[in-house]
């Protein structure tokens, strides 16, 4: 990191900026949607009112004394942030704490009848059950006739562009899905990615998942392909231990996605059978590590997670939030080589991400200039551009 220029941590304190709008507009909208989606009781409504008020004008408050994860949040910086405005602490931290507080407000942590009831489930289910998902699954029937490399590329790009399926993003970026994606990637290290995963190479691949539904389904299809072709002997899918950033995948969402695939006709059903037997014999494992919901960059990951990533042939981070956590949620000069902020990572690492926040590294000067000339600042957050970046060790 010695040559890396100083890059300030992103805060949400600048009115008119994207991070500010997430705190000031997206979070209240999410509270409204969750409140409308469930027959919550007066206690839950009161707690949601208090959270809304706190987000709008208040300071970050400590967790209740009996919170099951109180010690963990102390380690994750709660003592430093408590008492400060939501807008003045690192944006990554305040966003993550918002979801923690929202879950508490609706009773997720229990005890009681609402313990473990995912407040985002109706939105995730609606997407999984949508006709668009049927169309995407039917399109898989075109794959079996293609050479393996073409199938691999199609499934890698399916997983990459699946990252546009982000329900939190859609709440505040009106019409975002309607805007066409820009097919040319702003960075494409896919040749390096495939060099780590040759057919019958026996690799271990860790995929750190992002959204459920229409992102998780293509992630699972990619994993099925890697396993079926021997590009991976073993895969580990990391999901969130609790509902997060609206649509982030939990174990329950993996089960839903696998059922959806298993019920589909044609090639989709075949992929489901590969995945189902791989979970049964241990070639595919699902992990829900507490650090997956930490409000911190991966540079501060605990030792057990570091050891797991170190043992993998390749770790793939999906999505925008994971990218922010992988490189650090900072205002990097866009031409900072991806290898620099990820130098701490204990093994080969890849990012598959559509651009939905201001953090970006690894662009060529020409690419950055062309994006700025065409779109001003919008290319950073509009969700229409994508990248595949790899840091080999
Ligand atoms: O991680 P994902 O699903 O690709 O995107 C998450 C996201 O919608 O949430 C953050 C803002 O709340 C941004 O990083 C990004 O826009």
From TrEMBL:
Q: Does the keyword Manganese apply?
A: yes
Record-annotated Damage-control phosphatase ARMT1-like metal-binding domain positions: 23-368
GO biological process terms held by the UniProt record: DNA damage response
Q: State a single Pfam family of this protein.
A: ARMT1-like_dom
| Keyword terms | Hydrolase, Manganese, Metal-binding
Q: Which cofactor does it need?
A: Mn(2+)
Catalysed reactions, semicolon-separated: beta-D-fructose 1-phosphate + H2O = D-fructose + phosphate; beta-D-fructose 6-phosphate = dihydroxyacetone + D-glyceraldehyde 3-phosphate
A single GO molecular-function term is:
phosphatase activity
Q: Which InterPro entries does the entry link to? A: ARMT-1-like_metal-bd_sf, ARMT1, ARMT1-like_metal-bd
Q: Which family does it belong to?
A: Belongs to the damage-control phosphatase family. Sugar phosphate phosphatase III subfamily.
Q: What is this protein called?
A: Damage-control phosphatase ARMT1-like metal-binding domain-containing protein
- Please report the organism this UniProt entry assigns to the protein: Streptomyces yokosukanensis
